Amino acid sequence: MKFGGTSVADAQCIQRVVDILEKHHKAGDELAVVVSAQRGVTDQLIAVATALPTAKDDTAIVPLIRALSKRHITTLEGAAPDYVAEVGADMEEHLIRLQNILFAIYNLRELTPRSKDYIISFGERLLAPILSAAIRQRGIASTVMDGCEAGILTTAQHGESMSLPDSDERIKRRIGPLLGKEIPVIMGFMGCTREGVLTTLGRSGSDYSASIVGAGIDADEIWTWTDVDGIMTCDPRVINDARVMTSLSYIEVMELSYFGAKVMHPRSIEPAMRKGILVRVKNTFNPGHPGTVIVRDGKRDHRVVKALTYIDKVAAINICGAQMIGRPGVAKAIFTILADHEVNVMMISQGSSEANISLIVDETHVSAAVKALGELTKQGVVRQVSHNHDVCAVAVVGAGMAGAPGTGGRIFTALGKAGVNVMMISQGSSEANISFVVSQNDGPRAVRVLHDEFHLSEESDE
Ligand code: ADP
Ligand code: ASP
Ligand code: MG
Questions:
Q1: Ligand at shortest distance from the CA of 238
Q2: Which of 97, 324, 328, 330 is the most exposed place for a label (fewest CB within 10 A)?
Q3: What is the pLDDT of residues 156-173, one digit of tens each?
């Protein structure tokens, strides 16, 4: 079971989490827990750490440490009163260490990806021992471990590390023997390299941690507890009548999360899918609701389109140059150089004249992409590279689209009628996804139009 930041936001929330765990423990379920930082803490750590190298002074550090200390001590006192001295002492040590590192970053005027990972892991490092103590407070044994101690071994891509195959066996060896005897609490969002250097798994990475741990211990089910009843037809902050879906397939959730549905980390389905483990998304604040079940073949319903997402933090890169016509190897040169610069390409589209290739990349990768492609311009491989931040990517997802002719027509007709201009289209080979790009202003409207066109707010016979 994984609990997100809102689920552990304060002492009362933690009590609710322990109620859930106690109930399952008493029913005889063997549990391992993965937990995130308290809501907002990772954001605070990132904001201060990234500002320090260019900050005019170091006055942001002490208030941050004080705020973290106050919030976590208050939570600890409310959630595990008998453990305030023990856990509080460790917490103070962590905070002193964090404070020292932040001063060092300011003085050195340098924040490396490796030191950033170390700093932003403190949210989980401070919170997990409180949850573990709260479980002990109820008379259930519990130990706490960080991602590395739990056995999560990762690549060294700091900020976006991926689990390595060896994690399975290590997790089984370390967590397996504890199951049933106690409830181990594992800090989400982090792992380590073979050399023992701490890494983080990307924003929302605790979902991924949960799936890695679940796969490692061959769990019967992986439950992700969050603050909504399940995965919805669209982000409820964009579409107010979005509906919770009963069941989805692994592929559908991968497409949704890859295209920005914030409810799940994009990689969090992979480990579960590899082992065929059922994933359930449930609401900590409404545990009686069945939530969403994610399995290999999400129940086919009569709907071809099940859900929509949109991401606005992307940019379009256009590569022009007639040199590409009939010349093999240009695409290879483009994608090789982008990969060498660690640019992740989300969407690709090539005009039939071959004179144009358009790419969609994460906004944070734009400058690296433009720099990389600039080298190809110098070499004469492509003529011109331009980019546009004023775009967003919309994805229409549903496994039923495979083999259902006319879905594309319906999507683009509805958008056309609403006057939404489509700048780029791409369909994944899984056919579970049709994605397209529109201007940033048109994004929410495009999503609204399609949510209505496919009647996604209405109950189906899922
Ligand atoms: P947690 O801290 O539990 O991991 P997150 O904030 O990361 O929670 O993710 C849950 C939030 O994701 C929801 O509160 C909701 O606002 C947002 N969200 C975006 N898209 C969707 C969607 N398709 N279904 C459900 N929630 C979504
Ligand atoms: N605390 C991390 C984040 O905010 C990981 C997570 O919440 O899953 O991204
Ligand atoms: Mg999350």
A1: 1
A2: 328
A3: 999 999 999 999 999 999
Residue 215 has pLDDT above 90, yes or no: yes
Cα–Cα dist 389/369, whole Å: 13
Q: Is 0.85 topped by the overall pTM?
A: yes
pLDDT the model gives residue 120: 98
CA pair distance 119, 370, nearest whole angstrom = 29
Give the whole-angstrom CA distance, residue 277 versus residue 273.
6
- Which amino acid is present at 47? A
Strands of the 384-397 sheet, one edge to the other:
345-350, 356-362, 307-320, 384-397, 433-439, 422-427
125: exposed, middle or buried (Cβ count in 10 Å: 0-12, 13-18, 19+): buried
> By three-state DSSP, how is residue 127 classified?
helix
Among the listed residues 169, 166, 181, 121, the one whose alpha carbon sits nearest the alpha carbon of residue 147: 121
What is the DSSP code string of 46-80? HHHHHHGGG-SSSTTHHHHHHHHHHHHHHHHHHH-
For ligand 1, say whether the CB of 91 is within 6 Å of any of its atoms: no
Per-residue pLDDT band for 325 (boundaries 50, 70, 90) equals low
Of 78, 182, 202, nearest to 130 (Cα)? 78
Q: Can you tell me which atom of ligand 1 is nearest the CA of 261?
A: 20
The single-letter code of the amino acid at 238 is V
User: How confident is the model over 340-385, as pLDDT tens digits?
Assistant: 998 989 888 887 666 788 999 999 899 999 999 999 999 888 889 9
pLDDT at 328 (0 to 100): 74
Q: What is the pLDDT of residues 25-55, one digit of tens each?
A: 999 999 999 999 999 999 999 999 999 999 9
CB 236 within 8 A of CB 228: yes
Mean pLDDT over all residues of the chain?
94
For a pocket test of ligand 2, which of 3, 35, 42 has the largest count of ligand atoms closer than 8 A to its C-beta? 42
The two beta strands, 33-35 and 185-187, are parallel
Which three-class secondary structure state does DSSP give residue 228? coil
Which tokens go with 97? Answer: 């260490």
Mutation probe of ligand 2 site: the residue of 36, 131, 201, 264 with most atoms within 8 A of C-beta: 36
